[in-house]
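A further point concerns the way the authors explain their paired sequence and structure data. For illustration, here is how one protein appears when written out as sequence plus structure tokens:
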Amino acid sequence: MNIRPLPDAAFTRQALARDRRRLETAFFWGAISVALLWLVMIAEWAAGTRFSLLGLEPRTLPGLLGIFGAPLVHGSLEHIIANSIPTFVLISLGMYAVPLATARALPLVWVLSGILVWLFARDSLHIGASGVTHGLMSFLFVLGALRRDRVTIAVALIVFFLYGGMAYGFVPTEAGISFEYHGAGLVAGLVAAGLWRKLDPMPEVKRYEWEDEPEADDEWNDDPLEPPPPQNVPVLWDGPRRLTRGAVLQFPSRRRVEFVDEDDDGRIEPER
């Protein structure tokens, strides 16, 4: 995987101060989102009633209101506490890493998951922000794989480590848990990641000095100790190159000796 490195300018004092302000802004939006959930719960306690009209009842006309209101309503104190922590963490991570994409992904996950539940879920009253948190989880995780910069990859690993079990949220486990809302949120998060993966600007890529130096073939010929450039090195699968033959040396032929008959004085002389 090609991970884009951070430039040296990202570690200056001004850059670190700007990054701190960005982190504080992300925590602010995460806290505001959780405060909105608790505000509805406190309003229910003060009124002495449940805002069941805001719940999502599939394929009914009043249930259309639940597309927008169901994530704000929770059935118990344990229910809202279980959704408050992931809501704060996921929104804060998203607003820190990819604020522009997260600002658009959150309403899309909210509405699209509600529409899918209204169309395909079982006949029951669906409430809670778990569908939104499942959508943010899949959104941040897939976004890190699509963008492949250091910040989004780090966020994707954090999300997978903390809330990777949400990927099985669409599996029916208990009767009182809306697995349809979980599955719809996962699908909506995937859609949001595909749509707005390029909305936030990519970080600057660090370049080294040697990357900007011109490459000349003559430089390789100046120093005999330097290896040749890669493009001039033959590869094994091309087979042996055609060799040029040099001069062929002609050697004298070996003198052949043959025996003949004896001469008059009885000596044997070879034929020359």
Remarks:
- The chain has nine helices and no strands.
